[in-house]
Amino acid sequence: MNQTVEYEHAEPWVAPRMPSPLPSFEDVYDTHVDFVWRTLRRLGVPEALVDDATQDVFVVVHRRLAEFAGRSSTKTWLFSIAHHVCLGYLRSARRRPTEALPELLADTGNLSPLAASVLKEDLRRLYALLDQLDDERRTVFVMVELEELSVPEISEALRVNANTIYTRLRAARQQFNEAIKRQEAQDARRSSWTK
Description:
Layout: H1 25-42, H2 50-64, H3 74-93, H4 113-130, H5 135-146, H6 151-158, H7 162-193
Helix pairs in contact: 1-2, 1-3, 2-3, 3-6, 5-7, 6-7
């Protein structure tokens, strides 16, 4: 006797999710080289060394791309690598004398000379303010405020609890705002001396 059993609420069969194909090294490089360069510079790698540090990041990417499982975004994965490379450069940079003022991160080709000068001064001030943050706070601040990564992405990339990231971010914002107030007070004093 052949019985057919019908299920009213049977789940439709769903094909298992196939892993997306790995991006090529060239695609990763072309899409994210500017992000990696900016990240390294903003995290404090000296401007004279940022090209070398960027190359070091992509050497690691080339070597480990086949291991990238896609559990995080490519940008998060690259940030994690860049952060580790940056720490190495910062350790060695502390043993050397400080460098000159950082160069622009933005293309000033379409700006007037006055606008380019103002942008350069704003970037100089930004770096001076970022230099007042310790490495952990600076990393979180740069990635949230300048690169617009989410706290969960940063938590995953740094392998640090999200609550710790929120605490560091809150402290970094407070320290950054206090540094801005000190800078504004200094500017006000200077302008009163020139009057």
